């Protein structure tokens, strides 16, 4: 795993160089959804500090058994009845895909006197299997979610189209980037466009080219080569 971490970091650095970007502005979320707490600890020993999980019950058990300092982001579809389990353990929910979910996060935050950073998930590929707001609904969703005082919008998240066609993947990322810039110019209270979360194991170089500053990478870090 040490080698794959180095390989990924090197590839990120190369992509940044090619596109005149500073690699320090790119955050790597290590998607640990398929690996054990022991492997998470090993990743921490190798310099990874931010992890992504997509299943609440698995994640809760894992986080409780990891004995080293780490930060966790929730990246999967979240059912409203499990929100209360996520609030105390996660720093960010990247996958807010409905206003109803945001409202539930508000209610649960209020109960425990916390607040939550979130990303608004956009379905940029139009694939029906994917969660997220339709691109044309996104600004309206942001307007409604930002009215929730304990829910802080920090950016946008998407999953690129599942295809070999690089142009289609790039179009998804470009669409998210355009929305990101558009929302930024609106300068709305309780909305910060800090994080553009896009790019996974198979497409993160394209995401970097299209402006991603948060990559969510699982297999390229954790699967045995
Ligand atoms: C699993 C997952 C990833 C990581 O995918 P890999 O192909 O393993 O890099 C990223 N984002 C989300 C939302 C995921 O569910």
Short description:
The chain is α/β, with parallel strands linked by helices and 225 residues long.
Oligomer: single chain
Overall spatial form: globular
What small-molecule ligands were found?
pyridoxal-5'-phosphate
Q: Helix proportion of residues, in percent?
A: 40-55%
Question: Mean pLDDT, nearest integer?
Answer: 97
- And the CATH topology? TIM Barrel
Ends distance: 9 Å
Tell me the fraction of residues in β-strands, as a range. Answer: 15-25%
Order of the strands making up the biggest sheet: 7-6-5-4-3-2-1-8
Structure class: alpha/beta
* Number of DSSP E strands: 8
Describe this protein's structure:
The protein is α/β, with parallel strands linked by helices. The protein is 41% helix and 19% strand. It has helices at residues 2-18, 37-45, 56-65, 83-86, 99-111, 138-145, 166-186, 204-209, 219-222; strands spanning 27-31, 50-53, 71-74, 92-96, 116-121, 151-157, 191-197, 214-217. It binds pyridoxal-5'-phosphate. The site of pyridoxal-5'-phosphate (PLP) has 14 residues, from strand 8 and helix 9.
Question: Can you tag this structure with a few keywords?
Answer:
single chain; 225 residues; alpha/beta; TIM Barrel; 9 helices; globular; binds pyridoxal-5'-phosphate
